Amino acid sequence: MNYILVMTLSGSAMLLIYFIQKHTFGKNLPRRWQYLFLKAVMVYYLVPLPWLGESYRKALKDIRKEPPQFFHQYFRNEKVVYQSGNNMMISAGYQRRLLEAGIWCLMVFLVFTVLLVGYLKNYRRMLQCRSGGQAAQEKESLEQKRLQWHIRRKITLCSIEAGTVAFTMGIWRPVIVCKMPEQSVDRDMLISHEMVHIKRFDLFWKMMGGAVLGMHWFNPLAYLFRREFEKVSEESCDELVVEGYTEEERFRYALMLLEYAKGEGQMRGWKTGLSKNAGKIQERVELIMDYGKGRKKWTSLLAVLFMGIMAILNSMTALAYEEVKVLRVIEEEDMADIKTMNVETCFTPDDYEGENLWVDVILYSQQFEDEEGNIYPVGEEVVSYSECIHVYHVGIYKNHQLDGSGGCTIDYFEGQYCSNCGYCIIGEEVGSSSFKKCLH
User: Fold this and answer.
1) Which of the residues 90, 129, 160, 424 has the least number of beta carbons within 10 Å of its own beta carbon?
2) How far apart, in whole angstroms, are the C-alpha atoms of residue 200 and residue 219?
3) Rounded CA separation 156/170 (Å)
């Protein structure tokens, strides 16, 4: 569940940053940039970034020049990967975490599949009712706009006789469902609006917005995000359509928007089209009529710069992902022994009911662990090879001894280990640990 919680934290923090910039810069920031920023919010909601957290941790350690951590502490619920050559195995705690995340994502996938089946049924209906005998001007307008907006996909028009509905379904083979206006100017405006949605794959992004809500259904901000995302999607679409329009043309586009908004809502599900919400319509009309007024370029650049910096800073939330510790096992035959171990009973007593008991990872009775967590076996007799060009690694030497009554003692020494010949220099003793019951 750590992944889900960190993803909802990252996405929500990014959404709050979005509303801060929206309140601060207001109309100075074009809606297309706000739409792009909301897509970044969506990425934080949907994509886990543990690798980014690992990169940040490594960079922070390099900057602070932290001394090596000689004692490997293992919590029963930590994420641990055992690695030896090409062989790899994960701890039982890690397996449980992956199982929990998998079940969560499976539930979201099942809900998404049900919605997708309903969408495909409606989409096939639209394909079946497409206009076979379209008027010449309708075909011409559709083809001209397709070329104007540089769209290569085939677009189908489903022209209806009654109602004032207008929306688009389909991603790779879009279908525009509408009653075509009688006036050619209105027809061009309507088709342009739908072409922008098609060009930007807005239906796909709307589906991803639904995935955000499905994955983070427990987070109230996820509902706010979807509402804001769909609203800004329409506003940015209007902004692109009216770019270069005169005030009279913008007024006519606003009237067309009001007319078609009356019939919206006759079909539920995934589609892009004109909204019927009165508050949204009023705000969109005001945006259309005030397009470009009072907008300063330097303010827009400042707003974009602010959004970029905040997006980078928000990525620091990746540090909240739990660290995955990699334990490198030098001898591959020891991997077979690890695979047969029950991690719960190997590292904790059978009767222990707590959550955070830790012990050292002991693979050999005498072993050396370097600062990166690599574990090397040390022989009973420490022999130096005079002809070896020693390559020493600084770390800790551990001597594990059973006491004959089921307990054990671990002695810790400063040490250096040659990775070429296996020679180990044992230094000063730094401590010891005793266990009434051996956990290793």
Assistant:
1) 129
2) 28
3) 10
Distance, CA of 267 to chain centre: 31
Q: Give 434's DSSP letter.
A: E
Helix (H) or strand (E) run with residue 187 in it: helix 184-199
Distance separating alpha carbons of residues 97 and 100, to the nearest angstrom: 5
Amino acid code (one letter) for 30:
P
In sequence order, the 6+-apart residues with CB closer than 8 A to the CB of 340 are none
**Distance (Å) of CA 109 to CA 9, 65, 303:** 21, 44, 36
Whether the model pTM is above 0.70:
no
**Tokens read off for 175:** 């279908």
DSSP states of 395-432? EEEEEEEE-SSS-EEEEEEEEEEETTT--EEEEEEEEE
CB 330 within 8 A of CB 372: no
Segment 70-111, tens digit of pLDDT: 334 444 556 777 766 677 777 777 788 888 888 888 888 888
d(CA 342, CA 436): 20
Predicted confidence (pLDDT) per residue in 268-308, tens digit: 555 565 555 555 677 888 888 877 666 666 777 777 788 78
* Exposed/middle/buried for residue 232 (C-beta within 10 Å: 0-12, 13-18, 19+): buried
Backbone angles phi, psi at 327, to 5 degrees: -105, 110
Which whole-number Å values give the CA distances from 223 to 74, 206, 237, 277, in the listed order? 39, 13, 22, 17
In the three-class reduction of DSSP (H, G, I as helix; E, B as strand; rest coil), residue 344 is classed as: helix
Secondary structure of the chain: what % helix, strand, coil (to 5)?
A: 50, 15, 30
- Return d(Cα 267, Cα 255) in angstroms, integer: 22
The structure tokens listed for 236 are: 């940015």
Contact 162, 309 (CB under 8 A): no
CA distances from 410 to 355, 366, 378, 401, 431 (A): 23, 9, 14, 6, 9
Structure tokens at 414: 């400063």
Bridge partners (DSSP) listed for residue 273: 167
Question: What token pair was written down for 353?
Answer: 């009911």
Query: Which phi and psi angles does 15 have, rounded to 5°?
Result: -65, -40
Amino acid at 243: E
